[in-house]
Amino acid sequence: MDTTVAPASEAELIASLPSDFRWGVATSAYQIEGAYQEDGRGVSIWDTYCRTPGMVEGGENGDVACDHYHRMPQDVALIKSLGVDVYRFSVAWPRIQADGTGPANEKGLAFYDRLVDELLHAGVDPWVTLYHWDLPQALEDKGGWPERDTAYRFADYAMLVFDRLRDRVRTWTTLNEPWCSAMLGYYEGRQAPGRQNFADAMDAVHHLLLGHGLAAQRMRAAATQPIELGITLNMGTAMAATESLADQEAARRADGLGARIYLDPLLRGQYPGDIMDDLSVRGIKMPVVDGDLAIISEPIDVLGVNYYSSHRFSGVDAAGRTEDEDGNPISVNVPLGRPVTAMDWEIVPEGFTELLVRLSQEYPGTAMVITENGAAFDDEADQSGYVADHDRTSYLSSHIAAVAAARQQGADVRGYFAWSLMDNFEWSYGYAKRFGLVHVDYETQVRTPKQSALWYRDTVRRARGH
Fold it and tell me: Which residues participate directly in catalysis (predicted)?
């Protein structure tokens, strides 16, 4: 099988990564677990969203997904076969608390107990993400993340999981991609719960960050051994289409609402002033209570960075307008003319380097790990299930090299986790998009490592000098 060799320049960059660099793969609970009505699991906003006509491609859902709940030991063996040292997974909140409140569901905790033990037995470190978008529907019925109380419910839930696993798990991520939860879930309506209210989305931003801070404080106080606490943000590099003021402003706003509205309160204890001014013009004020920003800026040990693409923006639409019908400034995505993935996302590895270097310069002292990076392509499996995914292999090579290039420019990046371990339920796209290093036949649940998996395995081995 052709496992593809990285171009010389990329191979040299990858070879420069240090021996203690961490290599991993990542997944999320709703996308792989299935078993949606088993062992006391409650209903999540994604269960509801998937059953809302027109929301998910093909009317598909995560009821079975990759059946990981029943196939976990073989999946851990698959992870071990890739030679990685870390597996980042998320805990399904509705498995722990069916309605988002009250005592822990023992059967739910027991599953993650078994998963952690299986990983440790395989020599793989567990990296727990506490929230990857699957809010219990009962909490959404009470207002969801736009309500302050949800932040406190999240901290309570976090402690149920932390208390159970803290003796064996060192690294903890509170939230995965709060931008997606807030903006796609409450403003654009393209993800669960499917609401479309900008003010609600801004309230959600603050309460997601508050939930992170509350959980981080309580976990830190309860820790009985050294732990690494962090949060994961999805970001890219926002570029202006031209040097015009309108385009520069469009790029500033995109960066502000996409990155700085999270980074600044987390790492500086304040929201970015320019974005607060923009919101004020729209009659919106963040629901900050005295003391909130001190909680949100609880020191973290690692910033998770998820990167898929970068974008170029214009403040003028095709009709020449700079404002929409509501008087809000226009922001238009202007393609860079690059090759795209199956998600129609442009492939911009140099934007990855630029992002990481910028983060290290603007937020000095921040240790980073790439908690997700990968690509969906239109895979074609042969009769054995094998996929010769040269495109994905090339994507991974160029982006790992981009991380190495950022390190050479001073960025403190300590690890790289490929997204995703295996093909899975891709949210609003159903099963149409495949990000996996491992091919999944959804009818038989047979897993087959793709060319990219073998390349990644060999890359990890070389990095360790094996």
Answer: 177, 372
